[in-house]
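Please check both lines for our workbook:

___
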Amino acid sequence: MEKIKHFFWLCSGANIAILKKCESEASKYVGIGATVFFTGVFATLAASYALFTVFDNVWIAITLGVVWGLMIFNLDRYIVSSMRKEGNTKRELLTALPRIILAVIISLVIAKPLELKIFEKEIRAELVIMEQQKLAAQEAEAKLRFAPDQRKLNEEIALLKSEIAFKAAARDELDRLAREEADGTGGSKQRNAGPIYKLKKADADHAEQELAQLTEKYDRLIQEKLNALSKTDSLQRSELALLERARLDGPASRMEALNRVSEQSSAIALANWFILLLFIAIETAPVFVKLISPQGPYDHLLKIEEHGFETQRIENLARLNAEIKSRTQSLPQTESGFVTNRLDVLLNKS
């Protein structure tokens, strides 16, 4: 148990020698250290999963995930250990604000891969739909390339058939007039095959010959266009057969799928927010613990320790200044005064 406590003290970035003098502060820094440690663990898990979806290699993902987790752990440890309690809440809050913003950004980075893992089943189902939609879009694009030629051929075939139909209708009309002239139901109303009937019959026969010639000519053209249309259809089917369903399994596709699922389901969207807020709370917890906790014995001893170093630094500078002043006594008065003034300025600035 003592080793675990010591380990979490190290994670909190506290000065162990000073902390051992403050038993009342031990539990607080164990909690801070544990929060920093587990944030690093979560970062490692999240990064490992995210990198596994990219490299599809367990060992690469684990190695890089551990590196990322150590970086987040070290950054959190620095953020917590660099904060100082001075009894000025406003100043401490302003000092901590950049660290809080950084903690929120880290939370966003850590939370997203874990969200992808938590909603993996829903994401996989949405990825199948996205793959089908992409395949359908590719098929539509392929068909669109052949559509102008197919439309043009179909229009030309329809035009040729309509001309044949128009000529056949004209032939039928002339044939009807000749029959009505012959049976007396139309034309001159005389029931005989007289000269008028012969003229109408000649017109009908001529129309029949023209129709036969036109049909023979256009049937050949229609067959050629049908062959061209069949060839175009065959090329289109071949290209569609070569299309393969895109494999959507990368981080970007998964995030898009998660976004679509969240838009479709308010429960998943709410769960996403809860997960994000949870990680923000975890990541910012050490900073807020330092902010809301009052000054304790550890803070006072640490301030005394740091003040001792600062005092020693000033004393060393003063001693060095005195030594240099004594050495400058042998210099001419002008140069000696200049050096002394410069030393006094430097000492005051320090």
The mean pLDDT is 76. The first helix runs from residue 2 to 12.
